[in-house]
Amino acid sequence: MKPFLKSKFNKVTFLVTLFIIAFASNANAQNFYTLSGKVVDGVNSVEGASVVLKGTKTGVSTDADGNFSFNLKKGTYTLQVSFMSAPKEVKVQLNKDVLINVDLSDSFESLDEVLVSAVRVKSGAPVTFSNVSKEEIKDRNLGQDIPILLNYLPSVVTTSDAGAGVGYTGIRVRGSDATRVNVTINGIPYNDAESQGTFWVNMPDFASSTESLQLQRGVGTSTNGSGAFGASLNLLTDAVSEDAFGELSGSVGSFNTTKITGKFSTGLLNDHIEISGRVSKIDSDGYIDRAYSDLSSYFLQAAYVDDNTLIKAITFGGHEKTYQSWYGVTKEEMEEFGRTYNPYTYENEVDNYNQDHYQLHWNETISENWSTNIAFNYTKGKGYFEQFKDGEDFADYDLTPIVIGGETIDETDLIRRRWLDNDFYVFNANATYTNTNYNVIFGGSVSSYTGDHFGEIIWAEYASNSEIRDRYYESETQKTDSNIFAKLDYKFSEAWSLFVDLQGRFISFETNGLTSDRTPINVDENYSFFNPKAGVTYQINGYNGLYLSYAKASREPNRNDFENGISKSEKLNDFELGWRINKETFKINSNIYYMLYKDQLVLTGAIDDVGSPIRATSDKSYRLGLEIDAAVKISNKFSVLPNVAISSNKNIDFPAYLDGEELILKSTNIAFSPNFIAGNNLVYQPISNLKLSLLSKFVGEQYMGNIDAENSKLDSYFVNDLNVSYEITPNKIAKSIRFDLLVNNIFNAEYISNGYYYTYDDDWSVPGEVTTLDGAGYYPQATINFLLGATVRF
What we know:
The protein is mainly β.
């Protein structure tokens, strides 16, 4: 072959070969596409997340920036994405190169969050709940208690004895008071074992050490401690911080309110150890006369963490000294002396109490499927309520009458202290097994409580035969509470999932001795409860889902109930039907609930001589309601977060004594259960570091008793708060400086959020003249007031 022909042939061959390669490449390109993406937890990249093609063994791990990539043929694929969590499935239609973003914030469970995994639910669960992060409350965290910070959640009503949100505060959810709202901290029960109440005043500024909260309305999922009959609230304390920081914050406001808080973290030392803490001091004169609060608290945490282990040793506590304002004010007193009137004038009419908590948590990720958590807790509480009393009978204090100058003395002015000295031990343990389609948690909790109640006379005008520190009454309570549970979350198709929760709870309650009014109390009761729960979720599409659930709850009486002769347990069947829409620009959660009670212990409206509520058994009763809450992003600068709750809360059979006769009342309103509650938050953020919020709350009229008496009615009220937050980021000295302003009740409404109601008979001594009368007291809340704070983070 001639050289030039050979050269021409080589060129042709090369061109043909190149054409064939190009054609093949093009054909291959027509059949293969790139599926790539990024895995995040909210806003942070997740390194080392597992991304697997469902039904195959093909998978990759995300890089340091959370990125992953596949080269796949045209078709439909389901990705299973996980990182120490149940896999999150993402369906992708691949007919071109696709770039996706996978957010694991709904399913991601850090080692910190395992502390509360046994009592919390995730986004798809058939349970009605609200999540609140520390970011959502930080702008208003200027000294007020956690109930006040949660005031704008659906079906929530809050109140404050001193009127300004500092000191003794309370929360009601769906009309159920704090004794019926189960509270846990890192899965450890916080409700007082005897009264079942929650005393936030013992943990001032605890919001500053709280990472997140979840409020489950209704029965919710099985939890530790007293049964949830209106809601359960679980708190997760501060997560381990990878970076070191220091933080100083302070606030001042109306009624001489001040708050000073210091926080720090060493960050991860040697990539494994962190020490962090907080100290706080809060003072306030209160809106009500002399209703001051002198509060201090601390939080200290030492943590060890690696890829699979988290060990936390935590101690926190507080000391509170609050002047008493639980007696409220009558309508006549308000008219004569004003809304801030306080009948107590003795200079040391105070509650003085210390409470310290010690927790140890050990979380372990054993394998891709198994993880465990164990926890120990010890709580020590001790304190007293001091009170001046005039003209007290000797017999009420086991004193002997004395004779002075021939006159028999059997009454005296005195100062008394009523003490509570208690110890509370808890052990929790649970294990979690996670697979592609299901998640199982099983475990249990055991707690032991000992409470010593006693009273002392520290001064008396006539001391009779008493000696200093004599105890004029004394009783001791021992209570054990244990439960075992198993929870299954099973996804049996792309759209359907099942939730099953079974709990057995066992209580022993023993007490003997004398009550504070020297009445014998001897109780030895045991209770065994089986509380099943089940629900299904149907995911209509990627943003639209329905759920239906049933839950049973049972609970024992508290100490005050036993004192009033009640030993019967109460039972609740809770039915929930919900619809959730979750889109980029708006989210809507709506649900209908029906809570059917047997032997519900409802508040009568009356209180005892230290302000504790008195309850009575309602044979049959129910709560039926509709709740809707939403978050609507109108623009990049403006959002609206409304909620509304409409309900009917009725006693079907309520025994009452009127005009000396026992009557069974039908279809009366349950005490402290308004039929309409609405809230809203208008958020305007003109620039990234400035946020303005107008928070509104409407609470409809409600009765303080169960007999629909006109004198027991609390009027409806509408309150608005203005919150402004501005943050700057200096280049030197501080990482950030944030200024927060909170103007409460900006339109100066005069409203009352709580009170008490009682009935009495005017004269039993005259036959045929017995008539039932009634009376009421009220807790006025503050008119317009403000808090101004600054936080510097180093």
